[in-house]
Design brief:
It comes from Flexivirga endophytica. This protein has 338 residues and is an alpha/beta fold. The protein has 13 helices and 14 strands. The longest helix is centred in the first third of the chain and has 17 residues.
């Protein structure tokens, strides 16, 4: 089967230019259009079939497909694809298979499969990978970016700074002044925004930022369990913990229980996401809701619009968060003399 790469090479143009011509885009010179169409005809490339496949195919790429976070995003993406009559292809990056990395060949092969729209979910992307994606003529939308994005990269996320601030203000309003923070990956843009919201709320309340109260670097239960134990073992431990994911909050709850503490009497805990695990936790979790299903829907809608018109927009989309108060937060209890 003749590929888009073969047509581009034969015509002496980039994958992006060949894609534009074969998809009927007008922003290519007539001479170049003629050259690409001649190459396609000579090589037996069916532009109409390819264009139809591209219009009806969206690839959504995860680095994790078992977490409640990912499944919620996938639910929204699937709903949007069905409603719009599009095919949704789901793939996962395998950490133990270097050959499955996002190489130039990978992007070219995606384009050759007739896929013109890509949604990545918490997938690290480098400048070089963004360039390869553009050269392959693939529209891209990034959900909760990790690593590099450019001013022209369309991102979908929640109002993470506002959510982090609201969670911290809730704990401050309950009288807590020693508030720990369990963070996510250092390269995670949403994670950094949640930390900044936490810091902003503390400063506005006249509380100095204490780096000893900030631990954790992954959205997962077991590492967060260990980090929470470290926080609670401090000479002056926190009376509350804001965890930047529900999974991290579950780690904090387990650490408190293992230390014989009662939640929320001895420790208040707030999470972030409002996934099913927040409602199924041993103690229903106070958490910041972010619209994960809606983020999946919007990502599919936007990437299809970009596939039709790459100049449609180039700005980030942030969907609103809000705090949901359940049973893991309560007022600061006075310390009793031992």
């Amino acid at each position: 089967m003749t590929t888009l790469r073969a047509v581009a090479d034969d015509a002496g143009v980039s994958m992006s230019t060949a894609s534009k011509v074969l998809n009927g885009r007008p922003d290519v010179s007539p001479k170049t259009q003629e050259r690409v169409l001649r190459s396609a005809a000579n090589l037996g490339y069916s532009a109409r079939r390819r264009a139809r496949q591209r219009a009806n195919s969206v690839l959504i790429l995860f680095d994790d497909l078992i977490s409640p976070y990912s499944l919620s995003v996938l639910s929204g993406a699937t709903e949007a694809a069905v409603r719009l009559g599009q095919s949704l292809i789901v793939e996962r990056i395998l950490d133990d298979d270097p050959a499955r990395g996002l190489t130039k060949r990978w992007f070219d092969e995606v384009a050759a499969r007739g896929i013109g729209a890509l949604v990545t979910v918490t997938t690290p992307l480098t400048d070089r990978e963004l360039q390869w994606c553009a050269e392959a003529g693939i529209a891209l939308v990034v959900i909760d970016p990790i690593g590099t994005t450019t001013s022209s990269t369309v991102t979908i996320s929640a109002t993470n700074w506002a959510g982090g601030r609201e969670a911290t203000e809730h704990l401050l309003g309950l009288g807590h002044r020693r508030i720990g923070f369990l963070g996510g990956p250092p390269a995670s843009q949403p994670g950094r925004e949640r930390l900044h919201g936490y810091t902003s709320a503390l400063i506005d309340a006249g509380i100095a930022f204490d780096p000893d109260l900030v631990l954790g670097d992954v959205y997962a239960v077991e590492p967060s369990l260990r980090a929470a134990h470290d926080l609670l073992a401090l000479p002056d431990p926190p009376t509350a913990i804001f965890a930047s994911s529900d999974a991290s909050a579950l780690g904090a709850l387990r650490a408190a229980m293992e230390r014989g503490m009662t939640v929320p009497r001895d420790l208040s805990v707030v999470g972030f996401d409002d996934t099913l695990m927040a409602r199924w936790a041993p103690i229903p979790l106070t958490t910041v809701y972010q619209p994960l299903v809606e983020m999946g829907k919007v990502a599919v809608e936007r990437v299809l619009t970009l596939a039709d018109d790459p100049d449609a927009f180039s700005h980030p989309f942030q969907l609103e968060t809000h705090l949901i108060v359940r049973k893991t937060t309560g007022p600061l209890m006075p310390q009793t003399e031992s």
